[in-house]
Specification:
By secondary structure, the chain is an alpha+beta fold.
């Protein structure tokens, strides 16, 4: 569970949320199962000190997760991604060098419940198999649908 630690960056606090969700072993990729950014928006707070004039002292900035165990898990449950997973080609024929040869890549964006789970580049091809394999490398055996 989340401890009373403060973090130097918001990213560190978010990583702590992901670690707590994955700690039980039932979830191996918290970002694929939950809207981590929404959870962080709800739970991560910024703490700082101010000068007598009211200016924020930059070196005092710290982030914390302000939640007891029930509040934490309620926020996690409220932001579970349950909708279908979709994959979409979002960037085509980007010049690239792979294995020392000039080629192009296409970017596949993987989305669930309006949340981008990940994006992956694949060497451009007329064959569908490398694209399906790239999506599977992110989501495993879960069902997904290609969208245009």
């Amino acid at each position: 569970m989340i401890d009373a630690t403060t973090f130097s960056t918001r990213s560190e606090a978010i990583a702590s949320i992901e670690d707590a969700i994955e700690a039980g072993g039932a979830v191996t990729d918290a970002r694929a199962e939950y809207d981590i950014d929404a959870i962080a928006d709800e739970l991560v707070t910024l703490h700082s000190e101010e000068t007598p004039e009211g200016a924020t002292i930059a070196s005092s900035l710290r982030f914390a997760i302000d939640a007891d165990e029930d509040t934490f898990w309620n926020a996690v449950a409220a932001h579970e991604l349950t909708g279908p997973i979709t994959a979409k080609l979002t960037n085509l024929n980007t010049p690239a060098v792979i294995g020392g040869r000039a080629t192009t890549t296409d970017t596949i964006t993987i989305i669930r419940d309006g949340v981008e789970l990940d994006a992956v580049d694949v060497e451009s091809s007329e064959d569908a198999e490398p694209y399906d394999l790239a999506v599977r490398s992110i989501i495993g055996d879960k069902p997904f649908t290609w969208i245009r």
